[in-house]
Design a protein that fits this description.
Radius of gyration: 26 Å
Number of helices: 15
Largest sheet: 8 strands, mixed
Distance between the termini: 29 Å
Mean pLDDT: 89
Low-confidence stretches: 83-92
Number of strands: 16
Helix content: 40-55%
Structural class: alpha/beta
Length: about 475
């Protein structure tokens, strides 16, 4: 039997709360057809309500066709309820971190921009240059740490973010996720503790757990990680790592204040731990506010900086790098070698030209212009909505919505899927997976007209759910 909860402080009548929960569990199959409901007296005692409240809830279920009474036997879930197969299967998918995406669906779930936005023509020219210059050598295995000219170009590239390093501290990787896996393999042993922002990127948690790490959540405020909570937990635990996304965090879009960045560095030094900084979109800043990476403040060599080129430049490129503290360089090289020997030599050589000749600047200028139009449109359409609060960031790909108390994020997700709109329920970004009050929206894959259509549909669904949850039913007596 599923668990029922009631809130006597809510305006919604208690019998309606009981009805709504039965309705939800019957529709999604948690309470199967033919199931015998608890007796009126037993359920009333369990919930701390009077018998009339349960009687009214059961009458309402019967009036709506969810249950049948059998004289002298009890109340049973109807055999002809049409359960939603999508709900059952999709909830299972959600539990494994998967989102349903059908053809022609308005996609507010993906962080990957439309393929037509990527610099394909530039790369045709660049790859031809590489092949003409290097011939078959372009397909050789590279040094495990990466193609040396590429690592040198990376050092020049990140000077724009006030990060000054030696190319020997750069480890080339096959995308940001591999960077997290490499760090995990190099540093985490079974039983080690890892601190993460709450909420955070779900596949980072999965990577740390795959190494047997214990995950400790630290709350995220509007200006970054909760420093006081962080220090209290640092006193209790001795984490191997603190995993962070200080610029345009996934899923919230939050960027740390400069004060928070500096305090975080100081705490890592004081408590002798390392910070993993995951940076995938710091170029996508639409404001005049300065958002430098945490690594640029790293005077103690405590930050492991992971940078991916995938989302901003090309998702299928699978290219990025780690800037390592000097005492960890060899550990990361060994972990990378065990993972896949080396990253594609052709792609490294091509991207080296892309960076060294400054071709990336033209792409970023065009890309930001298009993304800014989408960002502004979604921000405008989400502002002032009565069904949720929204965190408005300075850039990045995400809007983080806190739903009103009477709206379930999972239910909203399922209703959106039925209407051909894909969103991400917030529980996927919490280590305990129990959140049901947040959703993440991304505009990355949607043109402005699709954003308008999708948000309009979202608002219609929110209105329907709100009305459904707050409807007053009068039992027939």
């Amino acid at each position: 039997m599923v668990n029922f909860t009631i809130d006597k402080n809510k305006n919604t009548p208690l019998y309606i709360q009981i009805f709504n929960q039965f309705k939800k569990y019957i529709e999604n199959g948690s309470i199967p057809q033919g199931y015998k409901l608890p007796t009126i007296r037993s359920l009333a005692k369990e919930l701390g309500v009077n018998n009339i409240t349960v009687i009214n809830a059961y009458k309402l279920l019967e009036l709506n066709g969810y249950v049948n009474k059998k004289v002298g036997s009890g109340t049973y879930v109807s055999q002809d309820i049409k359960q939603n197969d999508l709900t059952r299967e999709d909830i299972k998918a959600l539990e494994h971190g998967q989102i349903l995406l059908n053809k022609n669906m308005i996609n507010f779930s993906s962080s990957s921009p439309n393929p037509e936005l990527f610099p394909v023509d530039d790369f045709k020219i660049i790859i031809n240059k590489v092949l003409e210059r290097d011939g078959g050598y372009a397909f050789e295995y590279q040094d495990t740490k990466g193609y040396m000219p590429f690592r040198k170009s990376i050092c020049e590239f990140i000077k724009k973010d006030e990060i000054n390093i030696d190319y020997e501290d750069v480890q080339v990787i096959s995308g940001g996720q591999q960077g997290i896996d490499v760090v995990s393999k190099a540093l985490i042993n079974f039983g080690d503790c890892v601190f993460v922002e709450s909420p955070t990127y779900s596949w980072a948690i999965a990577s740390f757990k795959s190494r047997g790490a214990e995950i400790v959540d630290v709350a995220l405020n509007k200006d970054g990680i909760d420093i006081d909570e962080l220090e209290e937990k640092l006193k209790i635990f001795k984490p191997k790592l603190i995993y962070t996304m200080p610029v345009f965090q996934n899923p919230t879009g939050i960027s740390y204040s400069e004060d928070k960045l500096k305090k975080l560095i100081e705490l890592a030094y004081k408590y002798d731990t390392y910070i993993v900084e995951d940076d995938f979109s710091n170029e996508l800043n639409f404001s005049s506010n300065k958002h430098l990476p945490l690594k640029s403040y790293d005077k103690y060599d405590r930050v492991i900086y992971i940078k991916s080129f995938s989302k901003i430049y090309m998702p299928g490129l699978r290219l990025g790098f780690i800037v390592s503290p000097k005492n960890l360089v060899n550990s990361f090289a060994e972990a990378k070698y065990v993972s896949d020997l080396s990253t594609s030599g052709l792609m490294q050589r091509a991207f080296e030209i892309y960076l060294r000749e400054g071709i990336w600047k033209k792409h970023i200028e065009r890309f930001k212009k298009i993304m800014r139009e989408r960002f502004d449109e979604m921000k405008y359409l989400l502002s002032g909505n009565k069904y949720f609060e929204v965190n408005i960031s300075d850039g990045g790909f995400y809007f983080w919505l806190k739903l009103n108390d009477d709206i379930s994020a999972k239910k909203l997700y399922l209703k959106c899927i039925e209407r051909n709109v894909s969103i991400v329920p917030g529980n996927m970004f919490f280590s305990n997976k129990i959140d049901d009050s947040h959703v993440r929206l991304s505009y990355a894959s949607c043109e402005v007209d699709k954003i308008k259509s999708g948000i309009s549909t979202l608002n219609d669904i929110l209105k329907d759910i709100h009305n459904e949850e707050n409807s007053e039913y009068i039992p027939i007596v």
